[in-house]
Write a structure and sequence with these properties.
It is a single chain. This protein has 203 residues and is of the alpha+beta class. Helix content is 33%, strand content 19%. It is built from six helices and nine strands, in the order E-H-H-E-E-H-E-H-E-H-E-E-E-E-H. It has helices spanning 35-45, 53-60, 80-91, 105-119, 132-147, 197-202; strands spanning 2-4, 63-66, 70-73, 94-96, 124-129, 157-160, 164-167, 173-178, 191-194. Strands 4-1-9-5-8-7-6 form a seven-stranded mixed β-sheet. The protein has a two-stranded antiparallel ribbon with strand order 2-3. The longest helix has 16 residues, at 132-147.
Length: 203
């Protein structure tokens, strides 16, 4: 994987209880909150200064698709390296991951694509894979997590198509495209995720 993550301005977002990351006993607790509780949750989710907002999102809100178990809360199977990576995604401009298959990195990057588009304005997130099938599969993971968010956390979508997910509340979008000479051209990119980057380099 090769991920280009332009720095996110932190001045527009709130800090939340220093560097403490907490998780409630049940993700179901997040479905029914008061207005004040929602405000506190949004502060935690948007914490860029401490680099913990994305990890908080993963621990408390993310559900992913499992081939045999169906919908699974990510925190149930989240590895230590995934927790560390979730902080790097926010704090580093460029990330290269040399990994084996079936480690959960694609799932984590799909969650981050959703996180950036959902909580930050005017984000143009582009996922580039070897084939259209693989790029569409990554976007399917993004949509699965979005579909399983609490109703109060979801935002209206302008487009919910096979290759694009866009939000009307902040003008952000996630687009999945296959590898090509002009992949991602035609606009400024906020977050670029390149799947199977090593294979592309060889070809």
């Amino acid at each position: 994987y090769y991920i280009v993550v332009p720095a996110v301005k932190s001045t527009a977002f709130f800090s939340h209880r220093g560097n403490i990351i907490h998780m409630r006993n049940s993700m179901n607790d997040k479905s029914q909150l008061t207005i004040e509780e929602i405000k506190e949750e949004l502060k935690a989710l948007r914490d860029v200064e401490n680099g913990t907002g994305f990890l908080y999102f993963c621990l408390n809100y993310v559900k992913v698709s499992h081939p045999s178990r169906g919908s699974v809360a990510l925190h149930e199977d989240m590895y230590k390296w995934q927790k560390n990576a979730s902080r790097y995604f926010i704090s580093k401009k460029q990330i290269i991951s040399k990994k084996t298959r079936q480690t959960g990195f694609s799932t984590l990057t799909a969650c981050y694509a959703l996180y950036r588009a959902l909580f930050f304005e005017a984000q143009n997130v582009v996922i580039v894979s070897l084939t259209q099938r693989e790029s569409t599969d990554l976007l399917r993971r993004v949509k699965f997590t979005y579909d399983h968010l609490p109703i109060w956390l979801k935002q209206p979508t302008d487009e919910f198509a096979k290759t694009t997910l866009s939000f009307s509340h902040n003008g952000s979008k996630v687009t999945a495209v296959p590898r090509s000479s002009d992949a991602g051209r035609g606009g400024s990119i906020s977050l670029l995720i390149i799947d199977e980057f090593g294979a592309m380099d060889q070809q």
